Amino acid sequence: MSGPGSEPEQESAEQEREQQRSRELIEAGGIPLNAERRLKELRGTPGQDGATNGSFTSDLSVSDFALCHRLGLKPVSQVMGSSIYQVGYQSSTWPMMMGGSVLTELDTLSQAWNEVRRRALTRLGLEARLAGADAVVGVQLRTAAHDWAEGAIEYAVLGTAVHRDGATARASSPASSPEGEGEGGQPVLTELTVADYAKLLAADVEPLGIVAWTSVFFASMEGAWLLEPSRLNPTYNYELREFTEGVYGAREQVMERLGAQAQTLGASGIVGVRIGHSVRLQQVGSANRSRGGAVITFDAIGTAVREGTATSVQPPKTTIDLST
After folding, report:
1. At what angle do helices 62-71 and 194-202 cross, to 10 degrees?
2. CATH topology of domain 56-307
3. pTM, whole model, 2 decimals?
4. I need a labelling partner for 55 at 20 to 30 A (CA). Which of 159, 176, 227, 242 fits?
């Protein structure tokens, strides 16, 4: 029989302390202790030739892996960042108190999407830094909702961390906005494939980090417009002008934020921008104080870049196809 202070009890107490510490790290925006240990072990100990002794994992294809070698990029590890975030309650009583149409941002929903993405990207960068990487290429983003967590959203990002020979400056992406940077700063996160990354480096264009933003707007129908002849007659075609205006309002908000993030990084532009949006009809309020409208979600993400002094425009080459 095991007595007080026996080995099983000590192991149980140690596990409990580790779980508590992991929860504290996650609350602070970090990753669990076991993940930290694995990445540090993977980093290995530098040998006499400067190479590390740790082995790597990646989702690179054979072509991408070969291209990494040609570029002087050493794959370090497949890294990820994840966050499951509870979306708070957005008050819906204010549209009922206003006459005419309503076009406004749903701040609570916008903040939730931007915060869950920030936490996921911060953890991705932290994993890459612990593994000794300078950059993360081929970042993939995934979002999901779960029945077991009503009102919550999940954001996950995955990529391959690489070490770049001769890397000097490191940037921090505003999309991740880490609270604290380690020695040398955060690794550069990009959505670029290895091939696109190679093209930029060959053109003396430096990737600086991921920029991203999401805005959620509500656009209601204007009561007076419903009395227009075109809307009273179901055989007429007409534009839902309130909803079109809502899409433009959300888009301008997103593009303004992307531009501000790029300026913070000292970028000359943003490449590979991917835009997504959704429009869903929703009745807000209750009983006789309800109002119909559209909830518009608009998001964009891309990689900020800075052109080098050696960047020049190359003349086009003529190619003749002789196969036909």
Report:
1. 30
2. Translation Initiation Factor IF3 (3.30.110)
3. 0.76
4. 176
